[in-house]
Write a structure and sequence with these properties.
membrane, transmembrane helix, globular, 320 residues, mainly alpha, 74% helix, Homogentisate phytyltransferase 1, chloroplastic-like
Amino acid sequence: MDSMLLRSFPNINNASSLATTGSYLPNASWHNRKIQKEYNFLRFRWPSLNHHYKSIEGGCTCKKCNIKFVVKATSEKSFESEPQAFDPKSILDSVKNSLDAFYRFSRPHTVIGTALSIISVSLLAVEKISDISPLFFTGVLEAVVAALFMNIYIVGLNQLSDVEIDKINKPYLPLASGEYSFETGVTIVASFSILSFWLGWVVGSWPLFWALFVSFVLGTAYSINVPLLRWKRFAVLAAMCILAVRAVIVQLAFFLHIQTHVYKRPPVFSRSLIFATAFMSFFSVVIALFKDIPDIEGDKVFGIQSFSVRLGILDLCYPS
């Protein structure tokens, strides 16, 4: 190809011979400039000519010229990309997306429910106005933060165990949508469980620590897919887990945390506490019956025998 191109431009051959023999022509400079322009055009079209031709007038070789062009192109590219790497708007958008993904991963409705339950049952231990003190607020804050850490562990473990189901029922969750990898989910779940137990141990309240431990055990048994566990597959066992945590553990353990650890009083169960426990027991049964109605489709596909599936709610929601 290169030889054909050189034959098509005979001036290049003539110029090469002139440079070799040292012959002189009056219009040699004009011819050399013309030939150089023709070669520059061909050099960009057919780079292989670089091996056959160098400039006649003793200027830089074509290889060196190519180096100059490469350096210039590289420099321009780096200067153009540098502002994008430090774009404040893109960094802000990335932070917003990360917070939004974690917000959905933590299942905010469960977080709000847990916080309100702990605050309300803590108020049952208040006997007089002077009990509303910084000591009380500190004790409530310790209980809420430790419980929320454990809550994130429980809902996160449930999502790790239900990735395929959530792709049908809740495709907006970070694990189901692919925003979080499985390894990221495991890291978050393990970190929050450790933080929860660490905080409970540092506080030094045995009612708080046992509330966290029992919630950990029941939450793990409810979700994790190992033999004899994954109790969410069975309607009665699933309801018992919800009843034990929401109606018993939250009510009794966090009341005792304020009563015995914060106020240093003997463990006395008031009538208001008994009423609250009975009411939450009824409410927990309602939760167990109706919480899985939006998840019927995926639960039925993967064999989760929730109350909604067993009672045939699917036929009511999706009539044929």
